[in-house]
Amino acid sequence: MKLTTEVPVKTSPYPIDYNSSLLCLGSCFAEHISRKLEFYKFNVTSNPFGILFHPEAILNVLEKAVKDEEFTSDDVFQHNEKWQSLFSHSRLSRNSSTETLAVLNSAKRELKVASEEATHVIITLGTSFIYKHKSTNLGVANCHKLPQDHFEKELTSIEELKNILSRLISSFGMMQPDAKLIFTISPVRHIKDGIVENQRSKAHLISALHEVLEETPNQPSYFPSYELMMDELRDYRFFNRDLIHPSDLAVDLIWNRFRSNFISEDIYLDMSKVEKLQKSIAHRQTETEGEVFEKLKTYQYKIKEELKKKYPFMRFPNL
Fold first, then answer.
1. What's the DSSP call for residue 224?
2. Which CATH number applies to 21-263?
3. Alpha helices, H only, 86-139
4. Do 285 and 296 meet the contact criterion of CB atoms below 8 Å apart?
5. Which of 140, 167, 254, 277 has its CA 20 to 30 A from that of 303?
């Protein structure tokens, strides 16, 4: 008996393995996926500019990286005792303009290198609503709690989104023509925009993205994380207490579907070894000496050395 409608997921013809270089960009769900990849010790770079919800915010920083264009004093401002930038999330904010510019330019270099070396780029789109800074007309990554009258909130049209997404795909092509792009729509609902408005926002993203994918040679992949959450997992037991964000269980279930369709079966055994080692390291030990403790350390060391011999880039705590 089936108790849910299963969402079909296409298997990627270009699966990820431990030789892959991964870049994750976009909304907070991109961070969920990147944390899973990091746990399993993939070579992954995640959101150098922090969480970016709108495709234009991603495009703004990617084009800076493509042009290798430095951030300058015009790109930062002081507010609430921090120096901020409209190009980035607040986690890049610092106590001085010099520090913030240094962090921004470091993030730009990180994004440039990761884009040039990427075999796969995973892009999570969060919303079609964007805040335009009135004096610069920049679609901002974050408003940083500036007064509301500094911005104009807009629902980006499908045609505008198609243009942004096409430029995004083209920019990645300029950085690394062989990189495989994987797009997904964030399953997180932006309830602050309103229930109906959130649905319009997601509908614009879905329509624009699929039209662009159909028109793009060597069509990028699509992973239906939004559809999995809204249909296959359509039950509030799969949400956090805020009833907006996916629960840990939901993230695990969506990750399992991603792994089954986008990660090579050839490395499942090695992934299992990484998982066992990671859980063993994270487990709080009640004993710090004795035969049982020494056996555990020997077991951990053996798996670690096996993995490092096969994958020298993997890093684990000293055991």
1. -
2. 3.40.50.1110
3. 97-117
4. yes
5. 254
